[in-house]
Amino acid sequence: MPPFSYASLAPLDSSTVRLLSLMPSRDETAALQGQLHNYPLQESDKETHLYEALSYVWGGFDDPPHCIYINGNSLSITANLHAALLRLRNHTLERVIWVDALCINQQVDQEKGLQIQLMPRIYGQATQVIVYFGEAADDSDMALESIRVAADDENEKPRNSLASKRNQESILRLLKRPWFQRIWVLQEVGLARSILIICGSVEMNGYAFCSGVSKLESSLKDYSDLQSLIRPTIHLIRGSIFRPKYNSSSLGDLSLGELIDMYHNHKATVRHDKVYALLGMCSDHLSSTGLLPDYTIPWETLFRRLINFILHENMSIEAWDDREAAVIKSSGYVLGHVSSIRNGINRHPGQYVEVTFNNRPISFQYYKNYGAHWILQASAQSIRKNDIVCLLEGASNPTIIRAFEDHFGIIMIAVNLRQQTHQRSSFQLSMSSTPDYSHEFLLVWQWGLIPGEHSSSLQLPQMEINSVVPDYLKTNTIKAMRSFEVALILKDTGDLLMAEAKLKKDIGKCEELLGIDDIHILSLQEALASVYLSSNRWKMAENLLLEVIRNRQDLQGKCHQDTLNSKMELAKAYIDEEVLSRPSRAELLRGFRTELLEAIKSNSRIEERIMVQAAEYLDERVFKLLLGLQRDNVSVTENLVKAISRSMRDDGKMVILLEERAMDSEVTEEMVQFIAKNCGRNATKSLIQKRRADVKITCELLNAVAKGWEAVERMALLLDGRGADICVDSGLLATVARWHYPNIPAIMKLMLKKRGANIAITEETVLAAVGNIYHGRTIVKELFAQQGANIVITERMVTAAMENINHRETIIKELFAQQRADLAMREKILITVVGNVDHGNLILRKLFEEQEVNIVITEKIVIAAIRNMYHGPNMIYFLLEKRAADINITPEVMKALSRNQANMGESEWMLRQRSSLMMHLFEKRGAYMDVTEETVRIITNEMEFPEESLALLIEKQGEKLRVTEGMVRMVEEKLPEKVALLNRMKDNIQKYSSGSTSSTGYQAIY
Questions:
Q1: Exposed/middle/buried for residue 758 (C-beta within 10 Å: 0-12, 13-18, 19+)
Q2: What is the CA 736 to chain-centroid distance, rounded?
Q3: Rounded distance, CA 733 to CA 765, Å?
Q4: Dist. CA 68–CA 87, nearest whole Å
Q5: Which of 228, 389, 462, 678 has the fewest C-beta atoms under 10 angstroms from its C-beta?
Q6: What is the mean pLDDT of residues 36-47?
Q7: Domain check: are 64 and 114 in the same one?
Q8: Number of domains in the chain
Q9: Nearest CA-CA partner of 380 in 340, 433, 324, 333
Q10: Residue 551 contacts residue 522 (beta carbons within 8 Å)
Q11: How far is CA 623 from CA 87, 376, 691, 925, in A?
Q12: What are the TM regions of this chain, as residue ranges (predicted)?
């Protein structure tokens, strides 16, 4: 018979299809007979389409040839289709079936493409889809029976008899049949409303088949690759009974990207079908995408279009006609990494993924909108722990990738998060909005199983891009850069240990292949420094970045962009370290951080405002980095110098400024003078070395130095460096001695040591020191230690010392102890001390403790003590206790105690105190007095208690008393009742007139 020839389907854009009427036969060996007729698919929901659709595996044409006779003409078919049709042929009634190999003219690509677009409607409108696994073999009947029993079992887990080794093996062989691997079957069962499973002579409802397989899934736990193939397919078959009558205007639930992720490992005779077989199931509108079935275009073109559609139309893609792999280059962000993964079971074949996000803004947005726990559809490539979640430029959905030695493999190209409970955000971030966080991804999308587990916790799967795409760029330099970017991305996921180990390994490898001076090694070292920074190992990062900068300057130049970028990274590290150590400054530093870093990167002029802020709030490392930039980019201004002086915890910044820019013309003499006043020791030393002639030594400068920090060291530097220009005289010493700054004693000591031999210490100098209420004691001691032999102590010094509220006691003792303080001066000192109404008593006692041997009590001292209205009695008592023999009661002493000598304002009590003191003096020293008529006159006329005083004196004098007529007359006149006391001593009364002897004469009794 002649071969069958297809009639054209007209018009080609209609919904007309061919259906096969399979003729009945009771003879099972009879040739297959059938008729093809055109059939318009109706869209009405009321009409039932009385045909079945066959889902099967074509099989090879290498088997013994088979044919079917269509309208009497022969048409070659595969052995598997022949067996399926024999199995479906009825004994009595013809059977209307849609079979792709027969109902589509496979030789006409245009018709083939159009008919494929109708396949969703064909399978969706069929009364039943028949899934034909093939003929009975390898205990398939046993496998299907075990599945049926498991489905019928009410227990969630199957009975032990179903889990026997033979049953498990038979089930595994059934599930490994080619039908489960074929791409087209997904659409065929994914749109069906009723499914019948046929294998050999056994028939089973599709839902029952899925229920049984799900219950027996535990026996497949060691076959993850098989699970990834059958689980999505089983899920589609199970859902058939829940699908409503097909409506051609409806779309699927999943995007094309999701479907590709799920099923790209399924097989197809023609690669194009791996895409076309899924179009009818997707939720996307594809009319203008260039993805509609067209077998005339090369596979490489279709693959590019697919990737552009899923990701972005401007994506850089390399693809090939002879392989199911593409290389994609794209900018993008790292969102985080997969920290845990759990596969769904039974009715829920998805993947339960927990994502650990990094701290980037876009990552936070995803976490805010979708949370950290994602439920994803099953995928052909199983997600693994530590896989990376990223967002490629222009893509609307994240992508999950896996790191390899020098590239990334795509695990899921389109992660659709619409099923999350969090509301999806409408934001889309461009790469330019956060450039610091973007990376360059080199991606390989390879359809087929790829390595999954890391060989160790610190080692990536051992696969390079050239093992996937052998002819891809493979020079050592390019390999180094590819590896560099992988490490940077790993770091951004938070897997710092892995990134560090990889970078160290890559650096060693590059040094071996390219040489230690190769410039690409610097990029790897810079990446390693960024890993150190991410783990807060600041010093290690700083040292490595400084090494990179030095090498870049040698190899590329100071102003090369790579060098500037490295300097920017170092400055960024310094600022971040400051923020971490001082969180309170975070907001302030953010205010100028961006401008500063951008100026460094662009090699542009840094505004004075930014430099001032950097000087005030950042340490000297940043300042040194900035001054090391191109000279014109950083100006040394008065405001900058003042900012440095305000911020100094030490003078490191000022030293750096002077070392780098001291000789610049913009550093004026006024600025030099300001620096000299406000800098520290090291800066002073540098200033004298660099600008000695401009340092003007003035009293104002010395004052500023003296009150500043490190004052002694700085003063020493000035004295050494500019000694000839400093006139250290008594006037300057006096000025310094008056200052209250903490370092003044040490400065005075320094000045005296270095220049004291040529200085005469004047009264003015000592007075200034004595009057210094903060440092007087120390300065006075130092003055006398250095030039005590040349200092003349004056009353003004003593008076000033008594007025020093903090150091009067110690200063007085110091003055009193000096060798040049003669008896007269010591008398003056003691007179001043005992006359002090506030502290005289205390100081007197202290002097006796330490200087008693040098103390001589004179009449003037006793009188001065008596006249101290508050502490006089106590001091006299003390002197009587210590030096009674030195105290003589003279008329002058008595007058000091008399009523007439009392101070204005003295109370009656004070007056009585005076009289009591007189009585005490008579008690202690009355026997040693030379009593004269003047003595008696003072007692009778000026004492508060004359009777008692006279009686006590007469008692103490006894036989020594020389009584004169004048004394008797004065007593008779003033104290007649006491004249008897004198009369009892009539033998002592001298018979001569009072005028014959001087009334004021005073002689010692012995």
A1: exposed
A2: 48
A3: 6
A4: 14
A5: 462
A6: 74
A7: yes
A8: 4
A9: 324
A10: yes
A11: 87, 51, 21, 82
A12: none
Alpha carbons 927 and 922: distance in angstroms, whole number: 7
Give the list of residues 6+ apart from residue 237 with CB closer than 8 angstroms, or none. 131, 189, 195, 206, 207, 209, 210
DSSP H helical ranges for 908-986: 908-925, 933-942, 946-957, 965-974, 979-983
Residue 932 gets which letter from DSSP? Answer: -
**Tokens 């500063």, residue located:** 596
| Cα–Cα distance for residue pair 632/612, rounded to 1 Å | 16
Instruction: Give the Cα separation of 515 and 480 in Å (integer).
Output: 12
146 and 263 both lie in a single domain:
no
Best mean pLDDT range from 93-97, 282-286, 707-711: 93-97
- Give the separation between CA 301 and CA 291, rounded to whole angstroms: 10
User: In this predicted model, what pLDDT tens digit does every residue of 403-449 receive, in sequence order?
Assistant: 998 899 999 999 988 644 444 444 444 444 444 678 999 999 999 76
Same domain, 309 and 399: yes
379 and 357 housed in the same domain: yes
Residue 23's CB is within 10 A of a number of other CB atoms, namely 18
Looking at the domain assignment, is residue 826 inside a domain? no
Please tell me the distance from the alpha carbon of residue 493 to that of residue 650, in angstroms, as a whole number. 39
pLDDT band at 759 (very low <50, low <70, confident <90, very high): confident
Enumerate the H helices of 662-775 as residue ranges: 669-678, 681-691, 699-707, 711-721, 730-738, 744-755, 763-770
* Confidence class for position 768, pLDDT limits 50, 70, 90: very high
Closest CA to 464 of 483, 481, 448, 477: 483
pTM over 0.85: no
pLDDT recorded at residue 451: 59
**981 and 940 Cβ atoms separated by less than 8 Å:** no
* Closest of 40, 34, 174 to residue 101, by C-alpha: 34
Instruction: Determine contact, residues 8/115, Cβ cutoff 8 Å.
Output: no
- Mark which of 660, 695, 726 sits at the end of a domain: 726
Percentage of the chain with pLDDT > 70? Answer: 86
- φ, ψ for residue 443 (rounded to 5)? -115, 145
Q: Please give the residue that has the higher pLDDT: either 791 or 979.
A: 791
CA dihedral 52, 55, 58, 59 (to 10 degrees): -130
Task: Please check whether residues 289 and 238 belong to one and the same domain.
Answer: no
Please identify, among 433, 459, 485, the residue that sits at the C-terminal boundary of a domain: 459
Is residue 322 helix, strand or coil? coil
Is there a single domain that holds both residue 267 and residue 175? Answer: no
- Write the pLDDT tens digit of every residue in 577-623: 988 888 888 888 888 899 999 999 999 999 999 998 888 888 889 88
The alpha carbon torsion through 668, 671, 675, 677 (nearest 10 deg) reads: 120
Residue 301 and residue 237 share a domain:
no
Enclosing domain of residue 661: 636-726
d(CA 470, CA 484): 20
Question: Quick check: is 829 in a domain?
Answer: no
Whether residue 960 lies inside any domain: the answer is yes
C-alpha separations of 737 from 364, 468, 713 in Å:
64, 86, 18
- The answer to whether the beta carbons of residues 970 and 936 sit under 8 Å apart is yes
Give Cα 738 distance to the centre of its chain.
Answer: 49
Rounded CA-CA distance 203/213 in Å is 15
pLDDT above 50 for 1006: no
Average of pLDDT values for 299-303? 96
SS3 697: coil
409, amino acid identity: G
Amino acid (1-letter code) at residue 296: T
One domain for residues 357 and 238: no
> What is the rounded CA–CA span in Å between residue 951 and residue 836?
34
- Only one residue has tokens 């093992």, namely 467
- The answer to whether 94 and 24 have CB atoms below 8 angstroms apart is yes
> Is 182 a member of any domain?
yes
For the chain, helix, strand, coil in percent to 5 are: 55, 10, 35
**pLDDT of 230-283, one tens digit each?**
887 888 898 888 887 655 444 567 899 999 998 898 888 889 999 998 988 888
